[in-house]
Amino acid sequence: MVFHPKQRLHLGAEAEVWSGEWYGQSAVSKQRRQRAWRHPHLDHRLGVRRMISEARLLIRLRKNGMDVPPLLDMDLAAGRLIIGHLPGRPLIEVLNDQQTTDDYAKSILQRVGREIRRLHRLAVTHGDLSTNNILVNGENVHLIDFGLATIEYDVERYGIDLHVLDEILGASHPQWEGAIEEVIKGYLTAENEFGPPPVLKGGAIPGADAVHERLEEIRTRVRYHG
Ligand SMILES: Nc1ncnc2c1ncn2[C@@H]1O[C@H](COP(=O)(O)OP(=O)(O)OP(=O)(O)O)[C@@H](O)[C@H]1O
Ligand SMILES: [Mg+2]
Q1: What's the pLDDT band for 125 if we cut at 50, 70, 90?
Q2: Strands 80-84 and 89-90, how do they pair?
Q3: Where among 69, 84, 99 does a domain terminate?
Q4: How far is the CA of 202 from the centre of ligand 1 (A)?
């Protein structure tokens, strides 16, 4: 595998991410990191499982027309994925940017909701919907980082996806009060655009309204029980 690293984008607990070039193409390398406190064999197995799962989902989502980055290459033994580089910047930066107008933020947040609904309609829940894991390029929104994503049919996991983003928007971006309402608007509108929730081989996908209702329930639960 020939990846030429240029710039480190991110050093997290789980992965080290570099931008660079792969056969002349702009790409990122996502390298799993060893965690000292876990047994090395166990660490390797867990890490590899998550990596394979992310690779598999990237392929599945691209095949179904979502604007996730393409999977270019993977090296299981080295614990590394090579993924196409997407232009743009994380939602967290857009929301923290003083230049960002109300209208632009609203339109982006609705797009975010639309993308999440598209993901959910493929029976995939993201598992880590933070404003770091959403890339924004002009009017386009891309979901990334599918290391914790899973195939689900239970409405609870769909509700939790929205709730994670709700909490992060509230805690990290209090200046954008009502941000989650825009996300929900996009989420619900997408259902009108794409039609009734699909029934897949594994089961029926919970409808957008049902997920929204569950989000409200989760919020109430959290409010009363901490
Ligand atoms: N395909 C991509 N194009 C452009 N930037 C990317 C891409 N993938 C990742 N990045 C940048 O690198 C950062 C970290 O990547 P990612 O979220 O996939 O890793 P992570 O958070 O360490 O993963 P994990 O939660 O599995 O440990 C992202 O927030 C984003 O800024
Ligand atoms: Mg991430």
Answers
A1: very high
A2: unpaired
A3: 84
A4: 29
